[in-house]
Amino acid sequence: MFMAALLFQACTSSEKKAPAADTVSVKNSADTLISKTPITFKGLYTFGNEVNTFQECTAQNIYWVNDSLVDMRKPYEESVKFLSYPYESAYAEVKGYLSGKSSEGYASEYENVLVITEISKLEQKNFRTDCYNYEFIAMGNEPFWSLDIIPFEKRIVLKDVAEEKVIEFFYSPAHISGDTFQYSTTNPKNEKLEVLIRKEKCSDGMSDRQYNYSAEIRLNGKTLKGCAIKKGEIYNDRP
């Protein structure tokens, strides 16, 4: 079994469908019925106040989501319910079609609208999620914790499993010296986070697996130690 510190990032999938059909009949701008054939989209889904978006894994296009045929909110909330933070994206595989640019509300800020007809998978993202553009994911145990460094989202997120809380920080690029990555950042509460990641063999303490990086974080007088995974590097699940 993989280390317990990653259990709260494990997959929780949901499947929801609109009435089964190879095509969907919709009206165009001229109020004429046309047929749309749903195709598969893979990417990151984000829901929150005034946000309902889908970012494709490959093209990185971001669409406004129309989920009137299949509700995305409930399975999304189920997938990220444990130690989630506002606007946390989840990995999704859905079927649907693009309906073009909308002129209504927040949808008008996007070049296209993705109409969802079926949810094949919706799960909390983790280090194996291909289109999750993290820089490092660090984790440790005794106590259990994880730290996601996410330049794309301009944040660093600490999930403290032992205390059942999530703390967000502003992303600040690392100071790199050789094989050492040092991050120093704060958050709106003026809490200061120091992160030190070194390229060296590291054991999680619960198995014989070896990671390529060690990690040490300091926050509010507390030091947490563990291992880290760098985006793009091959990780071997076998000890």
% residues in beta strands = over 45%
Helix content: under 10%
- What is the arithmetic mean of pLDDT? 85
Low-confidence region ranges:
1-14, 28-34
Oligomer: single chain
Which class do the helix and strand fractions yield? mainly beta
Q: What is the end-to-end distance?
A: 11 Å
How does this model look, in words?
The protein has 239 residues and is mainly β. It has two domains: 10-124, no CATH class; 136-230. It is 3% helix and 49% strand. The chain is built from one helix and 17 strands. It has one helix at residues 73-79, and strands spanning 16-17, 24-27, 33-36, 39-48, 51-56, 62-66, 90-98, 113-124, 136-140, 145-150, 155-160, 165-170, 175-177, 180-186, 192-203, 210-219, 222-230. The strands form three sheets. A nine-stranded antiparallel β-sheet has the order 12-11-10-9-17-16-15-14-13, with no helix packed on it. Strands 4-5-6-8-7 form a five-stranded mixed beta barrel. A two-stranded antiparallel sheet has the order 2-3. A hairpin with a 4-residue loop joins strand 9 and strand 10 (145-150). The radius of gyration is 20 Å and the shape is elongated. The model is unreliable at 1-14 and 28-34 (pLDDT under 50).
